[in-house]
Amino acid sequence: MRRRIAFLSLFVLGLNTGLLVAPEGFACDTWVALRDAAAQRRVLFAKNSDRTIFDSQPLVLHPRKSWPAGAMIDLGRISVPQAGETFATLGSGPYWCWGYEEGINEFGVVIGNEGVYTKPLQEAIAAAREGRGPKPGPTGMDLVRLGLERSRTAKEAVETIAALTETYGQFGSGLPGQKLEGAYDNSYLVADPREAWILETAGTRWAAKRIEGGTVSISNTLSLGGSLDLSSADLSAHAREKGWWTGSPEAAFSFERAYAAEGRDQEIARGRAQVRANCSLGLLREKSGSIDESWMKRIARDRSTDPSLDLDATASSCVASLPADGGGLPVFWWCASVPSSGVFVPFFVHGTELPVFVSAAGTAGKRVVRPETAPVDRYSPDSYWWLFRDLTDLVNLDRPGRLAAVRKEFDALEQSFAAALPPVLKSAAELRKAGKTAEAARVLDDFSAACVESAAAAARALRDSWKPAGSDESAEPEEAGVYIANFGAFADAEWNVSARDGRLFLEIPGQGALELRPPDAKGFWALAASPQAGVSFSRRPEFGVTAMIFRRGAMSFELPRKGIVLPPEIPLEELRKFLGEYHGDELDETLEIVIKNNSLALKIPGQKTYELRPPDAEGKRFFRVAPLVYLVFKESETGGVESFTYHQGPSALTYKKIK
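User: That's the sequence. What structure does it adopt?
Assistant: Structure tokens below.
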């Protein structure tokens, strides 16, 4: 039955993939303006980090530290030796991860990573599915932090990450709750007060290019051609050996052409990434020579393209301002959650502590675990990140109107932070010059804490102003409950509908809690972050809500409510004649018709059991879970059942009853 099962799986898995409101194709973007392109001769670096909706990303600060010989670092899926000394770092990373999505160290080295898909990764995933894949390695986020902790310059960071990649690889998932489907290789943009580097990796191999001036942007695609400054020793030889590079010896080797993953899906993903990279690069060039921090934040909030730089799944954004050598202290402007509905707050790697609120995750806590085993993180009032994720969800309920209110409030805050910053930096620099580093750190810490307090207060005020009027937080809405999903990758998976502050949330395994817009006139509750998808509810007077129907475009899937067993829609005695085994000659497979939850159901060996609706006027018995798929039974003149035909789109397969 392999061909038919595969066809059905494609249908329902199409929903599962399209449902993701997480970044499509590992959507992150990183860009930099070097001193000749920026105002005040500073290097300006920025990144938008896009993750799954519930993948909270606290900001943490780690001071310089000495370590004993033999110390090890637990990265969750692998342990690696610790260096004798690690430099001070400031960065944000997922709640389950040791590393950073974006960060800065005490020498003004900044790094951001991008997920990329490569031929070595494709081979590794295929091998892992057969039980012979490579050993797990650090995540790209771990390598970002390792590079920052061990490097004084951007070039040193490139060499550090490259050496670690050659030694340990990078194989494994980088997304919470996901296994091989969450695996990706990495590219990096690395900068310091003098220069920038692009580092791209493919399995254990890598290529790097130095950027001495101007602007540059990277996204989720390999981009380096043959003009490389550093690389793996066997980079081109290995590509030739694998048959990935067949150019003549005289032809310039292209890392991107040789190592980028193949396939239609990958071509589409690269095209989408290139749209975003072109957007950020175009905006950089528009202001080249006068780019400042406010323009970098403007780029982070851009939604002029599809896909855009600013996404509903953006987990954080940063803008790092790096003064020239001896020109002052670096500033790490950081925004929790989506930048278009958030506020950038100045933080300092030369401080000593952050507000606990800023470094807190949600209910799952901040701890290092294997991403595959990471529990879903949920809203907590004690988390700064979740405060702004919650605000974003509220903005999305009425984005045109509410976004204007957010920007009016937060733009004014950012301007006030920027205006108050110069004397703070001057005071801290003078104290450090006088050897009073602790006092300097206190000045920086106090300023950041005051900015955080102002930002949080404004966010809470906006959120409270949009709280549904007259909502009774103690009353549980009738839609709240657990619904059972049996389609695509979901097998008896529990989708939970819950309420918070008078708002309804749909929690999907691997997706987190997604806010639902209030229902329209037809009872459709659209997802706030993805309005083309949503749910409606089926009711019966004697039971209340009996099922939830998930809809996306033309597709719909019914999820029965847990604990509800409906009486038979057709007397069970009338269904018994359909029960038994049916054989299909075309695929030489046997299926079984059974009764499940007082309904006829199709049982596929090794797969799921799909309940059927009662027949319509044409005798079509649609799958409850996917009402575009149906069976039609053929009865004999004496009333016995001879066969059924399975219909999905243009395909039809007939199975004869054998017992």
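Confidence is low (pLDDT under 50) at residues 1-25.
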